[in-house]
Amino acid sequence: MFEIQLSSAGQVVMAGRLDATQCDTALRFLNALAEPGVIDLARLEYIASAGLRVFLITQKRAKGSGGGIRLINANQQIYDIFRYAGFDRIIDIARAAG
Amino acid sequence: MNERRTCVPGNAAQLPVLTQFLKEFWAAAGLPPALAPSFELSLEEIFMNVVMHGSRPGTAPRIELSLLLADGGISMTLEDDGPEFDPLSLPQPDVEASLGDRRIGGLGVFLVRQMMDVVSYHRVEARNQLRMSKRIEAPEGRTDSPSATDGRLA
Which terminal residue of chain B, N or C, has fewer Cβ atoms less than 10 Å from its own Cβ? Predict the structure, then answer.
Protein backbone atom coordinates (compact mmCIF):
# COMPACT_ATOMS: atom_id res chain seq x y z
CA MET A 1 0.00 0.00 0.00
CA PHE A 2 1.27 3.45 -0.94
CA GLU A 3 -0.56 6.77 -0.90
CA ILE A 4 0.46 10.25 -1.91
CA GLN A 5 -1.73 13.32 -1.59
CA LEU A 6 -1.78 17.04 -0.96
CA SER A 7 -2.89 18.18 2.52
CA SER A 8 -5.17 21.17 3.04
CA ALA A 9 -2.04 23.07 4.13
CA GLY A 10 -0.48 22.43 0.73
CA GLN A 11 2.05 19.84 1.94
CA VAL A 12 2.65 16.58 0.13
CA VAL A 13 1.83 13.65 2.39
CA MET A 14 3.18 10.15 1.71
CA ALA A 15 2.04 6.98 3.45
CA GLY A 16 2.89 3.29 3.25
CA ARG A 17 5.60 1.61 1.18
CA LEU A 18 7.41 3.52 -1.55
CA ASP A 19 8.89 0.46 -3.25
CA ALA A 20 9.97 0.04 -6.88
CA THR A 21 6.41 -0.73 -7.98
CA GLN A 22 5.10 2.61 -6.61
CA CYS A 23 7.76 5.03 -7.81
CA ASP A 24 6.02 5.94 -11.07
CA THR A 25 2.89 6.90 -9.12
CA ALA A 26 4.88 9.08 -6.72
CA LEU A 27 6.90 10.74 -9.46
CA ARG A 28 3.86 11.45 -11.61
CA PHE A 29 2.16 13.14 -8.64
CA LEU A 30 5.22 15.23 -7.79
CA ASN A 31 5.88 16.19 -11.42
CA ALA A 32 2.37 17.63 -11.60
CA LEU A 33 3.22 20.13 -8.84
CA ALA A 34 4.72 23.39 -10.08
CA GLU A 35 6.75 23.95 -6.91
CA PRO A 36 7.03 20.92 -4.63
CA GLY A 37 8.01 22.12 -1.15
CA VAL A 38 7.38 20.34 2.15
CA ILE A 39 6.86 16.58 1.99
CA ASP A 40 5.57 14.94 5.16
CA LEU A 41 6.96 11.42 5.65
CA ALA A 42 5.32 10.71 9.04
CA ARG A 43 3.36 7.77 7.65
CA LEU A 44 5.97 6.55 5.17
CA GLU A 45 7.02 3.08 6.35
CA TYR A 46 9.56 1.93 3.80
CA ILE A 47 11.93 3.16 1.12
CA ALA A 48 14.79 1.71 -0.96
CA SER A 49 16.99 3.11 -3.74
CA ALA A 50 14.15 3.30 -6.27
CA GLY A 51 12.26 5.51 -3.83
CA LEU A 52 15.34 7.65 -3.19
CA ARG A 53 15.48 8.30 -6.94
CA VAL A 54 12.02 9.92 -6.76
CA PHE A 55 13.33 12.46 -4.25
CA LEU A 56 16.55 13.02 -6.20
CA ILE A 57 14.67 13.80 -9.43
CA THR A 58 12.21 16.05 -7.60
CA GLN A 59 14.97 17.92 -5.78
CA LYS A 60 16.90 18.49 -9.02
CA ARG A 61 13.79 19.92 -10.64
CA ALA A 62 12.91 22.10 -7.62
CA LYS A 63 16.45 23.46 -7.31
CA GLY A 64 16.50 24.15 -11.02
CA SER A 65 13.64 26.61 -10.56
CA GLY A 66 15.16 28.22 -7.48
CA GLY A 67 13.28 26.22 -4.84
CA GLY A 68 13.93 22.98 -3.04
CA ILE A 69 12.08 20.23 -1.22
CA ARG A 70 12.03 19.78 2.53
CA LEU A 71 11.28 16.37 4.04
CA ILE A 72 9.78 16.30 7.51
CA ASN A 73 8.83 13.68 10.12
CA ALA A 74 10.98 10.86 8.71
CA ASN A 75 11.09 7.83 10.99
CA GLN A 76 14.52 6.71 12.21
CA GLN A 77 14.87 3.85 9.73
CA ILE A 78 14.00 6.00 6.73
CA TYR A 79 16.22 8.81 7.99
CA ASP A 80 19.12 6.31 8.27
CA ILE A 81 18.69 5.21 4.64
CA PHE A 82 18.81 8.82 3.45
CA ARG A 83 21.94 9.30 5.53
CA TYR A 84 23.67 6.08 4.33
CA ALA A 85 23.08 7.25 0.76
CA GLY A 86 24.46 10.72 1.58
CA PHE A 87 21.11 12.27 0.65
CA ASP A 88 21.11 14.35 3.83
CA ARG A 89 23.81 16.42 2.09
CA ILE A 90 21.61 17.33 -0.85
CA ILE A 91 18.07 17.29 0.57
CA ASP A 92 16.82 19.03 3.72
CA ILE A 93 15.45 16.21 5.89
CA ALA A 94 14.19 16.27 9.45
CA ARG A 95 13.39 13.34 11.72
CA ALA A 96 10.09 12.86 13.52
CA ALA A 97 10.13 14.37 17.01
CA GLY A 98 10.52 12.02 19.97
CA MET B 1 10.94 -24.15 9.55
CA ASN B 2 14.59 -23.19 9.25
CA GLU B 3 14.56 -22.89 5.48
CA ARG B 4 11.99 -21.74 2.96
CA ARG B 5 12.15 -21.05 -0.74
CA THR B 6 9.92 -19.76 -3.49
CA CYS B 7 10.28 -19.01 -7.18
CA VAL B 8 8.76 -16.19 -9.26
CA PRO B 9 9.15 -14.74 -12.77
CA GLY B 10 11.58 -11.80 -12.94
CA ASN B 11 8.91 -9.17 -13.25
CA ALA B 12 8.65 -6.04 -11.06
CA ALA B 13 5.03 -6.88 -10.25
CA GLN B 14 6.31 -9.91 -8.29
CA LEU B 15 8.16 -7.76 -5.76
CA PRO B 16 5.19 -7.51 -3.34
CA VAL B 17 4.80 -11.31 -3.56
CA LEU B 18 8.40 -11.86 -2.41
CA THR B 19 8.12 -9.18 0.29
CA GLN B 20 5.05 -10.94 1.65
CA PHE B 21 6.90 -14.27 1.60
CA LEU B 22 9.73 -12.67 3.60
CA LYS B 23 7.31 -11.21 6.15
CA GLU B 24 5.61 -14.56 6.65
CA PHE B 25 8.96 -16.28 7.17
CA TRP B 26 9.84 -13.59 9.71
CA ALA B 27 6.63 -14.03 11.68
CA ALA B 28 6.70 -17.83 11.60
CA ALA B 29 10.32 -17.96 12.79
CA GLY B 30 9.77 -15.28 15.44
CA LEU B 31 12.69 -13.19 14.17
CA PRO B 32 13.45 -9.73 15.60
CA PRO B 33 11.23 -7.13 13.86
CA ALA B 34 14.08 -4.61 13.98
CA LEU B 35 16.07 -6.72 11.50
CA ALA B 36 13.28 -7.05 8.94
CA PRO B 37 13.72 -3.67 7.15
CA SER B 38 17.33 -4.47 6.21
CA PHE B 39 16.22 -7.69 4.53
CA GLU B 40 13.20 -6.08 2.84
CA LEU B 41 15.44 -3.41 1.34
CA SER B 42 18.11 -5.89 0.25
CA LEU B 43 15.50 -8.16 -1.31
CA GLU B 44 14.10 -5.25 -3.34
CA GLU B 45 17.51 -4.03 -4.48
CA ILE B 46 18.81 -7.38 -5.66
CA PHE B 47 15.48 -8.51 -7.15
CA MET B 48 15.08 -5.26 -9.10
CA ASN B 49 18.67 -5.51 -10.33
CA VAL B 50 17.86 -8.89 -11.85
CA VAL B 51 14.59 -7.60 -13.32
CA MET B 52 16.36 -4.66 -14.96
CA HIS B 53 19.71 -6.19 -15.95
CA GLY B 54 19.09 -9.92 -15.97
CA SER B 55 16.65 -10.43 -18.83
CA ARG B 56 17.28 -11.75 -22.29
CA PRO B 57 15.13 -10.06 -24.94
CA GLY B 58 11.60 -11.41 -24.81
CA THR B 59 12.06 -13.64 -21.78
CA ALA B 60 11.99 -12.87 -18.08
CA PRO B 61 14.38 -14.86 -15.89
CA ARG B 62 13.12 -17.14 -13.15
CA ILE B 63 14.16 -15.89 -9.73
CA GLU B 64 14.36 -18.08 -6.66
CA LEU B 65 14.38 -16.63 -3.16
CA SER B 66 15.57 -18.76 -0.27
CA LEU B 67 15.73 -17.87 3.38
CA LEU B 68 17.74 -19.85 5.90
CA LEU B 69 18.30 -19.68 9.63
CA ALA B 70 21.69 -21.07 10.62
CA ASP B 71 24.63 -20.40 12.90
CA GLY B 72 22.92 -17.56 14.75
CA GLY B 73 22.24 -15.66 11.56
CA ILE B 74 19.78 -15.16 8.74
CA SER B 75 20.87 -15.92 5.19
CA MET B 76 18.96 -14.77 2.11
CA THR B 77 19.85 -16.00 -1.38
CA LEU B 78 18.50 -14.82 -4.73
CA GLU B 79 19.23 -17.03 -7.72
CA ASP B 80 18.30 -16.41 -11.34
CA ASP B 81 18.82 -18.09 -14.69
CA GLY B 82 19.52 -14.86 -16.60
CA PRO B 83 22.76 -13.83 -18.30
CA GLU B 84 25.84 -13.62 -16.10
CA PHE B 85 25.68 -10.44 -14.06
CA ASP B 86 27.57 -9.64 -10.88
CA PRO B 87 25.91 -6.65 -9.17
CA LEU B 88 28.87 -6.44 -6.78
CA SER B 89 31.04 -5.43 -9.74
CA LEU B 90 29.13 -2.16 -10.17
CA PRO B 91 31.22 0.90 -9.36
CA GLN B 92 30.64 2.38 -5.93
CA PRO B 93 28.46 5.49 -6.06
CA ASP B 94 29.84 8.80 -4.82
CA VAL B 95 27.61 9.48 -1.83
CA GLU B 96 29.35 12.80 -1.22
CA ALA B 97 28.70 14.26 -4.68
CA SER B 98 26.80 17.51 -5.10
CA LEU B 99 23.18 17.46 -6.24
CA GLY B 100 24.06 18.15 -9.86
CA ASP B 101 26.50 15.22 -10.00
CA ARG B 102 24.28 12.66 -8.26
CA ARG B 103 23.49 9.43 -10.08
CA ILE B 104 21.25 6.72 -8.68
CA GLY B 105 23.11 3.82 -10.35
CA GLY B 106 24.84 1.47 -7.96
CA LEU B 107 23.16 2.97 -4.94
CA GLY B 108 21.01 -0.10 -4.29
CA VAL B 109 23.96 -2.47 -3.99
CA PHE B 110 25.77 0.14 -1.89
CA LEU B 111 22.84 0.14 0.56
CA VAL B 112 22.78 -3.67 0.65
CA ARG B 113 26.46 -3.68 1.65
CA GLN B 114 25.65 -1.24 4.45
CA MET B 115 22.76 -3.34 5.74
CA MET B 116 24.28 -6.82 5.58
CA ASP B 117 27.25 -8.41 7.35
CA VAL B 118 28.28 -10.53 4.35
CA VAL B 119 27.36 -10.21 0.64
CA SER B 120 28.74 -12.57 -2.00
CA TYR B 121 28.15 -13.37 -5.67
CA HIS B 122 28.77 -16.69 -7.45
CA ARG B 123 28.03 -17.93 -10.93
CA VAL B 124 26.84 -21.50 -10.36
CA GLU B 125 25.71 -23.84 -13.18
CA ALA B 126 24.54 -21.00 -15.46
CA ARG B 127 22.81 -19.25 -12.59
CA ASN B 128 23.58 -16.03 -10.78
CA GLN B 129 23.63 -16.53 -7.03
CA LEU B 130 23.64 -13.55 -4.67
CA ARG B 131 23.89 -14.44 -1.01
CA MET B 132 23.47 -12.05 1.89
CA SER B 133 23.64 -12.75 5.58
CA LYS B 134 23.40 -11.00 8.87
CA ARG B 135 23.91 -12.17 12.44
CA ILE B 136 21.04 -12.05 14.89
CA GLU B 137 22.36 -9.95 17.74
CA ALA B 138 21.65 -11.30 21.21
CA PRO B 139 19.26 -9.05 23.15
CA GLU B 140 21.94 -8.56 25.82
CA GLY B 141 25.60 -8.07 24.95
CA ARG B 142 27.22 -8.91 21.65
CA THR B 143 27.11 -12.21 19.83
CA ASP B 144 30.75 -11.98 18.82
CA SER B 145 31.92 -12.01 22.45
CA PRO B 146 33.96 -15.02 23.64
CA SER B 147 31.04 -16.29 25.75
CA ALA B 148 28.79 -16.43 22.69
CA THR B 149 31.40 -18.50 20.87
CA ASP B 150 31.64 -20.86 23.84
CA GLY B 151 27.89 -21.19 23.89
CA ARG B 152 27.86 -22.48 20.33
CA LEU B 153 30.24 -25.28 21.27
CA ALA B 154 28.11 -26.40 24.22
Answer: C
Architecture (CATH level 2) of domain A2-95: 2-Layer Sandwich (3.30)
Number of domains chain B is built from: 1
Nearest alpha carbon to residue B102 among A47, A53, A71: A53
Span B109-127, pLDDT tens digits: 999 999 999 999 999 999 9
By C-alpha distance, the chain A residue nearest B38 is: A77
Phi, psi of B133 (to 5 degrees): -145, 155
Distance (Å) from the alpha carbon of A50 to chain B's nearest alpha carbon: 8
B90 touches A: beta carbon within 8 Å: no
Residue A18 pairs in a beta bridge with: A47
DSSP labels, A65-98: TT---EEEEE-HHHHHHHHHTTGGGTSEEEEPP-
What number is the ipTM of this complex? Answer: 0.94
The CATH number of the domain where B48 resides is what? 3.30.565.10
pTM of the shown model: 0.90
Q: Do A85 and B107 touch (CB under 8 A)?
A: yes
Residue B126 forms contact with A (CB below 8 Å): no
